[in-house]
Write a structure and sequence with these properties.
This protein is α+β, with helices and mostly antiparallel strands. 31% of the residues lie in helices and 32% in strands. The chain has a single domain, classed as TATA-Binding Protein.
Length: 145
């Protein structure tokens, strides 16, 4: 089940560029808010909402990291995240660089991973006001059009 999704930072996004460290900070923020929600509900929602730990990919040139299951459930294994730039052509024919976040479900990923990856894509899209290209080919627009 190797599959890809993209979060593209368009002109109307809250930021035009993103680094791997900024992406990791967003995931730490996600962990914090879900843990606080769990505290309010007196339930371990933080562990259920984010059943992963952030792991580095050796020799990735700071372009990739992966979320590896923390072992609390067999429903989850791993999701890979990367950042990059692509050249796009705008409506006037000018070429510009556009930053994106790539989400990869590698071979061996579970359906639980795919569900969480979709959830994370939507969260990142809302947080960054970006254009999200989901695994099924659909596009969601979280920026003002």
């Amino acid at each position: 089940m190797s599959d890809h999704a993209y979060i593209k930072l368009v002109k109307k996004s809250t930021q035009q560029d993103i680094t791997l460290e900024e992406l990791k900070d967003i995931f730490k923020y996600y962990q914090t808010i879900t843990t606080k929600t769990g505290d309010q509900l007196d339930w371990g929602y933080g562990d259920a909402a984010f059943p992963y730990g952030i792991s580095e990919v050796p020799d990735s040139d700071d372009n990739w990291f992966y979320l590896k299951s923390n072992g609390t459930s067999t429903r989850y294994k791993y999701i890979v995240f990367g950042v990059g730039k692509e050249t796009i052509e705008d409506s006037e024919g000018n070429e510009t660089l556009q930053s994106y976040i790539q989400v990869i479900l590698p071979e061996g990923a579970t359906h639980g991973d795919k569900g969480k990856a979709n959830e994370f894509c939507k969260f990142l899209g809302k947080k960054l006001q970006a254009e999200v290209h989901l695994f099924n080919g659909r596009i969601m627009y979280f920026y003002k059009r």
